[in-house]
Amino acid sequence: TVEEITGTHSGLSAVLVFPDGSHFTVRPGSILPNGLVVVAITGDDVRVGKGPGRDMALPFGGSALAK
Questions:
Q1: What are the CA-CA distances from residue 49 to residues 18, 22, 34, 67 (Å)?
Q2: What is the rounded average pLDDT of the residues 5-21?
Q3: Which residues of 1-30 are buried (b: 16+ CB within 10 A; e: fewer)?
Q4: pTM, whole model, 2 decimals?
Q5: Residue 66: is its pLDDT beyond 70?
Q6: Long-range pairs for 14-18 at CB < 8 Å and ≥24 separation?
Q7: Please, how many CA atoms are within 13 Å of residue 48, restricted to the half-sphere of its CB?
Q8: So what's the pLDDT on residue 62?
Q9: DSSP labels for the chain?
Q10: Could you give the CA distance from residue 54 to residue 59 in angstroms, rounded to a whole number?
Q11: pLDDT tens per residue, range 15-61
């Protein structure tokens, strides 16, 4: 899930939280531990995928992510 998106339009990054509570700061092109690639980060979402046309938006989770 997405905890936060920061930066400017030309240099956005995001903090993602995994179910085990680990946090990762990512940019477009980052490869996640589960093999997904960060395809894009906008002011509204973070999109990840494994191949062309197969990307998905990650949900925002805030403090509820640490379950």
A1: 16, 20, 11, 24
A2: 91
A3: ebbebeeeeeebbbbbbeeeeeeeebebeb
A4: 0.81
A5: no
A6: 14/38, 14/41, 14/46, 16/46, 16/58, 17/61, 17/65, 17/66
A7: 17
A8: 54
A9: -EEEEES-TTS-EEEEE-TTS-EEEE-TTPBPTTS-EEEEE-SS-EEEESSTT--EEPPB-GGGGG-
A10: 16
A11: 999 989 999 999 999 999 889 999 999 989 999 998 777 899 999 98
Amino acid sitting at position 34: N
Longest Cα–Cα distance in the chain: 33
Phi, psi dihedrals of residue 62, rounded to the nearest 5°:
55, -135
